[in-house]
Amino acid sequence: MAQKESPEIQLPIPNQKLWTVNFVLICLSNLVVFMSFHSLLPTLPIYIQNLGGSKSTAGLALGFIMISAIILRPLAGWFLDNYGRKFILVVGLVVFLVPSMVYVTMVSIIPLLILRLIQGIGWGVCTTAQGTVAADIIPPKRLGEGLGYFSLTISLSLAIAPAMGLWLIDKFSFQHLFAACSVLTFLSLLFALSVKYPKRVNPITKSKLVLFEKDALRPAMVALMLGLTYSALLSFVALFVLQQGLTTAGWFFTVMAVTSMLARPMAGNLVDLKGRRGYDAAVATGMISMILCLLVLAQTSATWHLVVSGLLFGIGFGFLQPTMMALCINSVPSNRKGGATATFWFAYDIGVGTGSIGWGFVASILGYSAMFLLNIIPAVIGLLIYFLHKKPVST
Fold first, then answer.
1. Residues 245 and 347 in one domain
2. Fewer CB within 10 Å: C terminus or N terminus of the chain?
3. Which residues lie across from 201 on neighbouring strands?
4. In whole angstroms, what is the distance from residue 52 CA to residue 108 CA?
5. Helices (runs of H) and strands (runs of E) counted in the chain
6. What angle do CA 97, 100, 101 make, to 5 degrees?
């Protein structure tokens, strides 16, 4: 493995152009692999139940892939920084692709869950690698803006892919769904192979194995708080809306997706132009918007409540996620971007994973409305973590 591309020191980028062929390619690679991932989120539980699995077993389809992804992310970051980007990214995509190809044979429940564990390894590696490659390609002075556009591909995928997956199994079959996911992942691999990776200079020594970047922990902890709150909305808004006698939560998710896509590049421009003050403004705007969203959502009794809360959460999520990712990367030297990206995603995944389980217990005891109000607590904690003990941001 050590014979692959040299990983450590990136040569200076001669211009500040953002929309290069390489940037478009890595964005497309990220978009289509996330579409494959998001297409399976609502459909695999249905597949498992059709095979006779229980609701709790169906939930393991997401749980297993998240467990192995969370475990692998820190190690993936270290390998990226010490053995290069391209090789690790390609390996991650191949490991993510193979299980999707096997799904086409319509495996039973136990083999499916084992394959999800394997697929989680690929997922943790390839998504960490793609974020790191994007940070390499983006001009340093436009990192916030670039990561805003790069992470926009995740919002776009979430807006399209779940509905696409459900449409495929409704109009065609699960085999068609699994084949489509395989094609999407293969396209991601082709895009990744087409990227011209920045040349690197051999390091004198390899860095020691460090699972978490200490300097990136503060923004990563803010991302963890964001993940905790995001998981509550993603998991329980639809059920809460039905309980309140409304038809669907579609307005909330549609408005949230649109405003999140608009907010991401705005946040990126803000931090690039204003530096520390831009980061401060982005975090304050994001967290306050989330708090206001939760206050409105907890009182939902009409469709306009869903529109307003979706608007507010889209602003909050769109400002916070790319800003915290940029701050994680800017908190470390350039030869440790992989570790910083892994630290960010590890914390965010922990928040989403524990929140989706923990908030369910809270809702079963106190109800959905009280649960959404309690989500204000992680938002406030995130504000305190960020604004206490601030360190300078490198530019």
1. yes
2. N
3. 9
4. 10
5. 14, 2
6. 90
pTM for this prediction: 0.76
Under 8 Å between Cβ of 347 and 137: no
Residue 86 lies in a domain: yes
Note the residue count of the chain: 395
The alpha carbon of residue 237 and the mean position of all alpha carbons in its chain are separated, in whole angstroms, by 19
DSSP three-state, residue 10? strand
The C-alpha atoms of residue 91 and residue 296 are separated, in whole angstroms, by 44
Closest CA to 159 of 231, 232, 255: 255
The Cα-based distances of 381 to 231, 274, 298 in angstroms read 16, 24, 19
- Average pLDDT, stretch 239-266? 81
261 inside domain: yes
Structural domain total, the chain: 2
Q: What separation in angstroms does the CA of 9 have from each of 4, 133, 177, 335?
A: 15, 13, 41, 6
- AA identity, residue 148: G
Average pLDDT along the chain:
83
Question: Average of pLDDT values for 205-212?
Answer: 60
- Choose the final residue of a domain: 198, 229, 260: 198
What values do phi and psi take at 4, rounded to 5? -75, -175
Is residue 363 a part of any domain in this protein? yes
Specify whether the CB–CB gap between 204 and 39 falls below 8 A: no
pLDDT at 288 over 80: yes
Residue 340 sits in which domain range?
Answer: 214-387
Question: 382 and 340 in one domain?
Answer: yes
